[in-house]
Amino acid sequence: MLGFVLFLHQRLAYGLVIYAVILGLWGGYEYIRHKKLSGGFRSSFILMAGLTALQGLLGLVALATGGGLHNKLHLIYGIFAIIALPGAYFYGTRRDDAFEAALLSAASWLVTIAYLRGFMTGH
Hints:
The protein has four helices and no strands. It is mostly helical and about 120 residues long. The chain has one domain: Four Helix Bundle (Hemerythrin (Met), subunit A) (Up-down Bundle). Helix 2 packs antiparallel against helix 3 (about 70-90). The radius of gyration is 15 Å and the shape is elongated.
């Protein structure tokens, strides 16, 4: 069971890095074009936040079932990503279009860094 949970945790981490980079590029492109973010971008951003929470849950299950935690920073990066994504979304959607695009793009890049740092401090 633990091996399967760790496998899912690792594979979802790879997917989230790629997903966050795509959203960072997409949001940056819309910002440069001075376009309003589409519903597709917003729903993709919310999906990333949900997948990040699922990733954290898998990590907690692995930790609870004996997976061990080699570096506590790994946990901190995960908590940061789980808090930062919805925070940026709810703060950004109450602002003008350019600010929203810049903020959500920047948040995507910041969690990309957090995900990558999670790799560096993880298993």
